[in-house]
UniProtKB/TrEMBL annotation:
Taxonomy of the source species: Bacteria, Pseudomonadati, Pseudomonadota, Alphaproteobacteria, Hyphomicrobiales
Alphabetized PROSITE patterns for the sequence: GST_NTER
Species annotation: Rhizobium sophorae
Coiled coil regions in record: none
InterPro entries the record matches: Glutathione-S-Trfase_C_sf, Glutathione_S-Trfase, Glutathione_S-Trfase_N, Thioredoxin-like_sf
Keywords: Transferase
An MF annotation (GO) of this entry: transferase activity
Highest taxon listed in the record's lineage: Bacteria
SUPFAM superfamilies in alphabetical order: GST C-terminal domain-like (SSF47616), Thioredoxin-like (SSF52833)
Protein name: Glutathione S-transferase
Length: 193
């Protein structure tokens, strides 16, 4: 199995979650500007949309999108997903929220001239504030790290790298999650630590 990834991008969430789940995989670096795969090959042949992540299974099937890949990981490692009759749907609800309300605003923010970024930046901070309210017990779903936390960590960590002033307790959340062995391993493997 291969995880196609670009260091520091949203694929970091999938990388972390796969390590947390103990899933064996090869990490394949993608240059998003050139759409080339490290070691040779065109990334557009793997994912015609041209962005990461993409998870290629041993049979050649490819799964894309953070929500889908993180849900797939959670199905294989139930300890990384909320339990109960609505657990799977609560996970999909949170992953979809992170993808649509926070993640998808970053490309818009980064593509704007610096003097025009403030309204989109305020929206990003607003939605981080909404999610921060869910962290009173430490993680998005209580006292246990789950795949959704890998996604929120990546988004908040990336926002902090861009200089966003994040609402509390996100600074503490980032620092705490960054110390997890799987997170340290992923950051090291991606050349970010």
């Amino acid at each position: 199995m291969k995880l196609y990834s670009t260091p520091g991008f949203s694929s970091l969430a999938d990388h972390i979650a796969m390590l947390e789940a103990g899933i064996q995989f090869d990490l394949v670096k993608v240059d998003l500007e050139t759409k080339q795969i490290e070691g040779g090959g065109r990334y557009m042949d793997i994912n015609p949309a041209g962005y990461v992540p993409a998870l290629m299974f041993d049979d050649g099937e490819v799964l894309t999108e953070n929500v889908a890949i993180l849900a797939w990981i959670a199905d294989r490692a139930p300890e990384l997903a909320p339990q109960g009759h609505l657990g799977r749907f609560r996970l999909l609800e949170m992953l979809s929220f992170l993808a649509t309300e926070i993640h998808k605003r970053f490309p818009t923010y980064l593509s704007l001239p610096e003097e025009a970024r403030e309204p989109t930046g305020q929206q990003i901070v607003h939605w981080f504030g909404f999610v921060a309210g869910r962290l009173e017990r430490g993680y998005l779903f209580g006292e246990t790290f789950m795949v959704a936390d890998a996604y929120l960590f990546q988004l908040a960590w990336g926002a902090a790298q861009l200089g966003f002033a994040l609402p509390e307790p996100l600074d503490e959340y980032i620092a705490r999650i960054e110390q997890r062995p799987a997170v340290q391993a992923a950051l090291h493997r991606e050349g970010l630590a």
